Amino acid sequence: MNRFEEKVVLITGAGSGLGQAAALQVAKEGAKLSLVDLNEKGLEDTKAKILEVAPKAEILLITANVADEQAVQNYVNKTVETFGKIDGFFNNAGIEGKQNLTEDFGSDEFEKVVSINLNGVFYGLKYVLKVMKEQGYGSVVNTASVGGIRGVGNQSGYAASKHGVVGLTRNSGIEYGQFGVSIKAIAPGAIMTPMVEGSLKQIDPENWEEVGKQFVQPNPMKRFGKPEEVGYLVAFLLSDQANFINAAVIPIDGGQSYKY
Questions:
Q1: Cys-Cys crosslink for 30: which of 5, 99, 119, 199, Cβ 3.0 to 4.6 Å?
Q2: A Pfam family for this UniProt protein (predicted)?
Q3: Gap between the Cα atoms of 128 and 66, Å rounded
Q4: pLDDT, tens only, 124-145
Q5: Residue spans per domain, the chain
Q6: Separation CA 98–CA 37 (nearest Å)
Q7: Which residues are paired to 30 by β-bridges?
Q8: Is 158 a catalytic site residue?
Q9: What's this model's pTM, rounded to 2 decimal places?
Q10: Superfamily assignment of 8-189+227-252 in CATH?
Q11: pLDDT by residue (tens digit) across 48-106?
């Protein structure tokens, strides 16, 4: 398929995990890419992997902290200056943060997680939606989490921020549908990304793989999801095939959120 031929897709958190997987998928389908991450080495790695599967891909790399509003405005402006438009936006960058009971959860840690996961998503929407409104079209996918539709123990900052992403998605979808823009969120469960690996290592650095095996047992499918499985979903949601899906939150979690 070439659903993204001549289309421009902007992705944050593109240096690894879900952002990288989505970038690879839309690149295979012809997208021009603006890739944003704080990790410059991660961006270069993503670019190299894209060029292996899509040698002619046009790729703009931007190193930026999504918690910095000026940096967000800058990556949006650079994308438009380079490509002239933004057809799709995967508003994905995020962190999990440290794990602790709420009473022991550091205030600075809480603010750090919220600033990246929630403020960063809000800033992205603020500046990208202005571009898409002027265009009269566009598609946005925000990364929420199963932690945004139910509780997640020992992760106050993460759960609060991802619930906020769900709220922003529904609210902005209601606002911008009239301008030809569709906005949705994905709610991934346990997907084996560097972030999830880091979370397991917080629990037991020496035996994190065994912890992971136990962690997925309550899931009906009893396995971790793969980043590329999320990439397929994101590509569909960013494509014209999903234009009428708006203000929706779509779990991709093997049935985890429906079991409890």
A1: 5
A2: adh_short_C2
A3: 13
A4: 999 999 999 999 999 999 999 9
A5: 8-189+227-252, 192-224
A6: 20
A7: none
A8: yes
A9: 0.94
A10: NAD(P)-binding Rossmann-like Domain (3.40.50.720)
A11: 999 999 999 999 999 999 999 999 999 999 999 999 999 999 999 999 888 899 999 99
pLDDT of residue 260: 54
Which residue has better confidence, 174 or 155? 174
Do residues 117 and 135 make contact, with C-beta atoms less than 8 angstroms apart? no
- The residue behind tokens 């993460």 is 158
The phi, psi pair for 35, rounded to 5°, reads -115, 130
Nearest-angstrom CA–CA distance, 237 and 227: 15
In the block, which residue shows the tokens 């265009």? Answer: 135
Q: Listing from the earlier edge strand, what are the strands of the sheet with 138-143?
A: 59-63, 32-37, 8-12, 88-91, 138-143, 181-188, 248-252
Residues composing the chain: 260
Least confident of 28-42, 127-141, 145-159: 145-159
Give me the catalytic one of 137, 158, 232, 258: 158
